[in-house]
Amino acid sequence: MKKKLVTLCALIFIGIGSYVGYSILTKDTDKHLDIQMAQSNVSPDKEWIITFDHGINQEIMNAKSVYVQDQDNKPVPVSLKISDPQTLVVKSPNGGYQKEKTYNLYINRDLDLEHVGNENLPKQYHIQFTTM
Question: What's this model's pTM, rounded to 2 decimal places?
Answer without folding.
Answer: 0.73
